[in-house]
């Protein structure tokens, strides 16, 4: 990753301008060309540095439902439970954290009903009761990683 | 020419965008052709969705671990109900805090109602930054915990149930 990659990533985290030829605008800003920027971005997506480019729809405004949930998983079963969750399309990401609640994951579902069913299914499959912590208020969403 | 798309075109456009924005010089023209519309209509529709808050920006999802952001801390605090909005807004304005949400307590197992995500490259530095943040906001004496992640099992940004992929993923 070189300096142009870094500047491109930092700039795109702020959003692509909504105009007919957005790459032309960025090329002028970054002193590059429209085609070069697109090639760079494609490579960063292909090699896994970036996982997605485009609009991120707010699932809740589209009628979907999100939650953050946690489990206390016995150490001997940790990998097996992680694999069980990884196979479920509703699980967006899953982290081990240093806490008695040692597994934390986000669920994204098409509806509240689907979310409840998903939590129940996790309980049935793992024998563990999820701690369900849906957000009640959003104070700030501003993921920005300067690279 | 109508400014906005008909419902079928609008749905088709959203489906196309779920896999991301095509990396072309004129991406909206390309999308417009696929749904039988004009470039300007597609731009107007996307602008309207953005104004309505359906999405915040045409942006990136980073594999933050691949980029070296491996010190991923979830700071959780037990804030008195009467103060939570004020404290949440204050912490949410801090550049260090990338996400800040109120979530329910689940007593007796879980007492914390304010969640802040802090991402950095080095754990020691993130720990020091969080300690300074709490001190600055006079929160050090309230119950709190910092949960660092030690392993990521699945991180896929925008893939969910098939009907709703491409949504933002912060739970």
UniProtKB/TrEMBL annotation, chain A:
InterPro entries: AsnC_trans_reg2, HTH-Siroheme_Decarb, NirdL-like_HTH, Tscrpt_reg_AsnC-like, WH-like_DNA-bd_sf. The keyword Protein biosynthesis does not apply. Gene3D superfamilies: 3.30.70.3460, Winged helix-like DNA-binding domain superfamily/Winged helix DNA-binding domain. Pathway: Porphyrin-containing compound metabolism. GO terms for molecular function: lyase activity. It holds the Pfam family NirdL-like_HTH. Residues 5-49 form the Siroheme decarboxylase NirL-like HTH domain. Coiled coil: none annotated. Keywords: Lyase. Residues 67-139 form the Siroheme decarboxylase AsnC-like ligand binding domain. Transmembrane segments: none annotated. It comes from the Bacteria. It catalyses: siroheme + 2 H(+) = 12,18-didecarboxysiroheme + 2 CO2. Belongs to the Ahb/Nir family. Probably forms a complex composed of NirD, NirL, NirG and NirH. All proteins are required for the total conversion of siroheme to didecarboxysiroheme. This is siroheme decarboxylase. It comes from Pseudomonas wadenswilerensis. The gene is nirG.
From TrEMBL, chain B:
The keyword Lyase applies. Keywords: Lyase. Pathway: Porphyrin-containing compound metabolism. Residues 67-154 form the Siroheme decarboxylase AsnC-like ligand binding domain. One of its GO terms (molecular function) is lyase activity. The keyword 4Fe-4S does not apply. It catalyses: siroheme + 2 H(+) = 12,18-didecarboxysiroheme + 2 CO2. Involved in heme d1 biosynthesis. Catalyzes the decarboxylation of siroheme into didecarboxysiroheme. Probably forms a complex composed of NirD, NirL, NirG and NirH. All proteins are required for the total conversion of siroheme to didecarboxysiroheme. Belongs to the Ahb/Nir family. This is Siroheme decarboxylase NirL subunit. It comes from Pseudomonas wadenswilerensis. The lineage of its organism: Bacteria, Pseudomonadati, Pseudomonadota, Gammaproteobacteria, Pseudomonadales.
